Amino acid sequence: MKIANDCVVSIHYTLTDEAGQTLDSSAGGEPLTYLHGHGGIIPGLENELTDKAKGDTLKVVVQPEDGYGDFNPDMLQQVPREAFQGVDTIEAGMQFQAQGEGGQMQMVVVREVTDEAVLVDGNHPLAGQVLNFDVSIEGVREASAEEIEHGHVH
Ligand code: ZN
Questions:
Q1: What pTM does this model have?
Q2: DSSP tally for the chain: helices H, then strands E
Q3: For the CA atoms of 13, 16, 21, 23, what is the dihedral angle to 10 degrees?
């Protein structure tokens, strides 16, 4: 069967950046399984998988607007060093859970540390990047009524 909305799709994928560095891969593990047409994966990848079938392989180039969005400089924030009390060492590259403006928890990455302040970045780590996916379709099946109602795979 061809991939359409409300199919459960299993894929193996390797994600590389523009320099050819591997960022993520399902190789050697379980395939990624998602419910097609419910926003379970980024739109640029989901759109290209429509009408494909089990056994197909494809290369997909996803621009930031169809991936994790553009890099937003407003999501860089200087936080006073005192806000990190109880944390012994703060270094660039560390990740923290932080409370966003709407009260929701979000992941932030430390970009820069000085004696007074810590520069944190709330952008998705892949924001602003062109993403190259090598995908092989491992399975396609119809979703159950319950899966469609819940919007995810059981
Ligand atoms: Zn459920």
A1: 0.80
A2: 2, 9
A3: -70
Tell me, in angstroms, the distance from the centre of ligand 1 to residue 65's CA. Answer: 29
**Residue ranges of E strands in the chain:** 7-16, 22-25, 32-35, 57-62, 76-80, 95-99, 105-113, 117-121, 131-142
Q: Are the CB atoms for 90 and 84 separated by under 8 Å?
A: yes
Integer Cα distance of 120 and 98 in angstroms: 10
Residue 85 pLDDT: 83
Ligand 1 centroid–CA 135 distance in Å is 26
What is the structure's pLDDT at 98? 80
Q: Kindly give the distance from the C-alpha atom of residue 154 to the centroid of ligand 1, in angstroms, as a whole number.
A: 6
CA of 108 to the centre of ligand 1 (A): 29
